[in-house]
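Record Leucine rich repeat containing 58, 353 aa.
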Amino acid sequence: MDLHKGAANGHSEGVLDLSRRNLNSLSLVNISEERKRDTKQLCLSFNRLASLPGSVCMFYNLEFLDISSNGLSVICEDITRLTKLRTLISKNNRLDEFSLPKEFGSLPLEVLNLSGNRFEKMPAQFLKLQRLQSLSLGGNRLQSIPAEIENLTSLELLYLGGNLITSIPPELANLPYLSYLVLCDNRIQGVPPQLTRLHSLRSLSLHNNLLTYLPREILSLVHLQELSLRGNPLVVRFVKEMTYDPPSLLELAGRTIKSRNVPYSPCDMPCHLLHYLDLASKCPNPKCAGVYFDSCVRHIKFVDFCGKYRLPLMHYLCSPECTSPCSSNPQSDAESEDEISVPADRLQKVLLG
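=>
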């Protein structure tokens, strides 16, 4: 087809739409220098571009680039010359962790959507995008989330649904502005309690995973409005599974010192023992003044959400003899003043069914 004619029909106010033109290359011979300069949005989706043409860098003021649904397997090095590029959308291609230029992380990207590709690992270049606010890698083959995800401190949306992820790294909790976290349709078996530090989180999608309980700390997510849990093997009745490894002599000594407030100073013991004592966790049972270090009892407690749903949250008690903060009787438990409930205005949607 006549690319110049197509460009003329698809250009308005800085937008050049060359999508669905059956292009297998990008020749700019008939594109004026003025048009190259003024184009800020370029759409090349639904063509037949096996690799991103180097000529795209001729649009040196480009801020938005959509190259979705092309069968792309390579993004050329020239993309790093687009120093004003803020949004890159390359969905439904054939990209993997070897498809990107080495200096891809130098781009000033704020939005990156590479859903529907073939990534098995999150490329290291992504973790250098300091301005990134939205990262979508849904429908790939990712098996894990790297701990270095914490480097993306500007991130507000993270979409990783439809992968093969089995766990959530605690480092994810170090993203201060993260508001939307989508981890649905994976193989995740547990939620780290550190996620309570995501003070900006408004929506958490965990449906269609392998979750059997949630950490009790999730109740501290004060801005959470939507929690999606359908399609998980969450237990539907009270379960009291006590698993307990007897405490070591070190732990017994530490418990005695902390629970009885035995005074000590840096002069009394080696540094590693001082550090160990600092790791004491208080038993959550309000009727117990005990502490624990490594040895504790895993205990599942059900908590009311919005007066309609009961979610199994994980508690840790200091010993099997410790009286549970919730009664074994469902009726008395529901009426217990120790019961933790979340008012309806705290959680707008709990999607379980």
